[in-house]
Design brief:
The chain has helices at residues 12-26, 38-42, 73-81, 87-92, 109-116, 128-140, 146-153, 162-168, 191-196, 207-216, 231-235, and strands at 4-7, 49-52, 57-60, 65-67, 99-102, 120-125, 155-159, 174-179, 217-226, 238-240, 247-253. It is of the alpha/beta class. The chain folds into two domains: 4-67, no CATH class; 73-253, Rossmann fold. Strands 7-6-5-8-9-11-10 form a seven-stranded mixed β-sheet, sandwiched between helices. A four-stranded mixed β-sheet has the order 1-2-3-4.
């Protein structure tokens, strides 16, 4: 990435050391803010600029603006804490100690919820900028509850196309593989999803990815998509019908067993 990192103007002095560490970790230049406008800074970062803020991280290239926020995950985590069900947690039959690959991480909301249910999650994201925002955002976000912070710490973000990643790992090395491809039809009008529309990977789920998941998932593969999507029948997922819900889940029980 031909990008750079700077700090929010309001907290520039306090965040300088963190920005320098970020620059070293990601091999990008650090540009001191020094009351300069973003427009001025972007002249030195034509592919975009990461901006460290006190509680989050954002990125802009002057035309698009993205930032990390857990979106609906915090509300779902609170429901779990009250003993209420979550559709994804139920579909994947997650138990504490499970391992899971979220193959289409995006904003990481589903990964965070599954981690909150006790899973250790590898969040695979194909888009480089989004992978950085997710990794650093999970670390910086001011979760109100300690157990939510612990859930975020159980997520490992990997920047990779998910098919290649799945093909590279040993058979039966994770309990669950989860796919949430770009919806066959749009059903989510949240600001978080809108933020990614100009950058997310809109490729449909591929047969190669499902084939790899069949050997890597020791127990189950889960997919989420619009109820009209052909993905369920095309790849042999058993659909879990959700009356009045536009998002359906499908499962494949692999029976591979852990290696």
């Amino acid at each position: 990435m031909n990008t750079a990192v700077t700090t929010a103007a309001k907290h520039a002095r306090h965040l300088r050391s963190e920005a320098e560490s970020f620059a070293q970790a990601y091999h990008v230049p650090y540009i001191q803010r020094e009351k300069q406008s973003l427009e001025t800074l972007l002249a030195s970062a034509p592919d975009g600029l990461f901006i460290l803020e006190r509680d989050t991280i954002s990125w802009t290239n002057g035309h698009s603006y993205r930032w990390y926020h857990p979106n609906t995950a915090v509300l779902r985590l609170k429901r779990l804490a009250r003993g209420q069900n979550d559709a994804l947690v139920d579909a994947a039959a997650i138990s504490p100690g499970d391992s899971m690959i979220d193959a289409t991480a995006g904003l990481g909301a589903d990964a965070l919820v599954c981690a909150g249910a006790g899973a250790s999650v590898t969040a695979v994201e194909s888009e480089a900028v989004q992978a950085v925002l997710l990794r650093e955002g999970l670390r910086r976000y001011p979760f109100a509850q300690e157990w939510m912070k612990q859930a975020a710490a159980r997520i490992t973000v990997v920047h990779s196309p998910h098919t290649g990643y799945l093909q590279s790992i040993p058979d039966g090395s994770t309990d669950i593989v989860y796919f949430d491809p770009a919806f066959y039809e749009s059903v989510d009008a949240s600001s978080g999803i809108d933020m990614l529309r100009d950058s997310w990977n809109t490729s449909p789920l591929q047969a190669e990815a499902v084939a790899a998941a069949r050997t890597k998932a020791a127990r189950i593969i889960v997919v989420k998509d619009h109820f009209r999507s052909p993905v369920f029948e095309e790849f042999g997922f058993d659909r879990l019908h959700r009356p009045s819900a536009k998002q359906h889940y499908g499962i494949i029980n692999t029976g591979v067993g852990r290696t």
